Amino acid sequence: MRNSFLVSFFRLTLVFILFLTAGSAAAGALAETDKSVRSIVSGIVSYTRWPALSGQPKLCVYASSRYVQALSSEKGQNPLPYTPVIVRNDQEALSATCDAIYFGTESPASQLELIRQYQGRALLLISEQNPECVIGSAFCLIINDNRVKFSVNLDALSRSGVRVNPDVLMLARNTKHE
């Protein structure tokens, strides 16, 4: 009886340890994705030039993004090349006078609507939910299995009013930045 209790206790302890190990591994993978998104967005912003901007650009991050914390927090991280502003809707984005916008779950059609309202201003647009990258944002993140890549909509970029270093555009074709 006592042996069976010890065996059961040992098995339960082993299962608990495995559960904790698996949980921390999954949390680590999420943190790595957050770091990759932050790194790619920071890189894109830092290699972008606005025609009439002095100082850091203001990046408005939609609250619908899965990476709001990674894109806005400076705790224990490298300094951001932009000033983050969290927005919940188009009105907040318009009143914040953003230099760049990071879309979360907003559709490409709603991205286009906001672009129309910003007409005449240089504006960098980045999206995490626009895999085709045909309309809407100039840069579209592609996040699969904790790997982060990006594609470029050259038509949207040419109409954005900003200039991006050509090396960044080459990275979109290269898989080494993943």
Mind explaining what this structure looks like?
Residues 1-27 form the signal peptide. Keywords: Signal. Helix content is 45%, strand content 19%. It has 178 residues and is of the alpha/beta class. The chain has one domain (33-173): Rossmann fold. Strands 3-2-4-5-6-7 form a 6-stranded mixed sheet. The protein has a two-stranded antiparallel ribbon with strand order 1-8. α4 links the parallel β4 and β5. The chain starts with a helix and ends in a 5-residue tail after the last helix.
The CATH level-2 architecture is identified as 3-Layer(aba) Sandwich
Unreliable residue stretches: 5-30
Helix content: 40-55%
Q: Into which percentage range does the β-strand content fall? A: 15-25%
Q: Supply the CATH class.
A: Alpha Beta
Largest sheet: 6 strands, mixed
**CATH topology heading:** Rossmann fold
Count structural domains: 1
**Distance between the amino and carboxyl termini:** 55 Å
Placed side by side, the strands forming the largest sheet appear as 3-2-4-5-6-7
| Content-based structural category | alpha/beta
Number of discrete helical segments: 6
The H/E string reads: HEEHEHEHEEEHEH
Number of DSSP-assigned strands? 8
CATH H-level superfamily:
Response regulator
Coarse morphology: globular
